[in-house]
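quick one: S-adenosylmethionine bound model?
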Amino acid sequence: MKPDDFQFLATLVKDRSGLVLTQDKAYLLESRLMPVARKRGMKGLEDLVASLKARMDHALADEITEAMTTNESFFFRDIKPFDIFRDTVLPNLIKTRAAKKSFRIWCAAASSGQEPYSIAMVLKEAAAQLAGWRIEIIGTDISREMLEKAKAGLYSQFEVQRGLPVQHLVKYFKKHDDLWQIDASLRAMVQYKEFNLLNDMNALGTFDVVFCRNVLIYFDQQTKGAVLEKMSKQMTDDAVLYLGGAETVLGISEAFKPVPGLRGVYGRAGGNGSLGDGAPAAGAMPKPAAAPTGFAKPKHMMEGRAPKGADAPARPAAPAARPGGLPPRPAGPSSGSPARPLPPKPGIKKP
Ligand SMILES: C[S@@+](CC[C@H](N)C(=O)[O-])C[C@H]1O[C@@H](n2cnc3c(N)ncnc32)[C@H](O)[C@@H]1O
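yep, here:
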């Protein structure tokens, strides 16, 4: 691909979504955009660029942007964030929102729904304590295709084997031909909306918990900072923000600070919350000595093997000693790291 064409497309995608494509991702652009070009009877990316330069077709530009998103997700991704939600954040919400009996959760990069449905399953398991509560889970994403899949709640055998405890599969899913569909009661717990994180967030309202995991890694520092700044304004004083394992607010935004002891969880700077300002969570359950997660890790996670086509491999297992007494190789990037070259779009788009 000509450098000018690459630059044109990379700028278009960055302006519309915040996603940064560096020259070493040219292969990714080719592999993901060739189908878009062919679908329109074009021979290749040169034609695509020429057509957009001649006339900016917004539907085509959206399609290109969507094709360049990485939608990798799985149930109970990284496990720990959901343990923290169940054991600390949720008990805190139950205590601090006891009078109004309501709270709102935002999954800001919901992709195909595994993250909001994981939260919904945690809430279902705590149904006895939440009787009479009004809880909203809003799942947003820039990708319409992913939102459609999320709404349908249909997952392949492979997808339900990634992170989902078998008891949850049996309890909350039904088999339809080759696919598994999550129960209607769980689907009804999540509202999906198309939303671009670059846009004004005011209309979304205020949230008590925000999951914004494994999306900021694809943005540059300035965009990450701007998104976090806006997001902080949509959160209650004591709200908490979850970021992905390879993401942080440190050096990027002053709007949040890490909650001590809760990895990946951030509170609003200057917030008055029991979690957000690092004070012990009101109603937090005492930590068991060896905290059982209750969520079984799928085999590939335990062995540090990433499934084929995954953009973000599961957390690697402890590095093994190398033959000949060599020290172990350093661990690879954590889940969601953009340092790893991205493979072609995983099959997630077409279950
Ligand atoms: C790797 S997935 C993360 C899914 C989930 N949060 C998780 O951690 O498993 C990243 C998602 O961010 C979405 N995304 C990328 N840019 C976005 C933007 N500007 N606004 C909203 N969503 C965006 C993509 O469409 C994709 O579904």
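DSSP finds twelve helices and ten strands in the chain.
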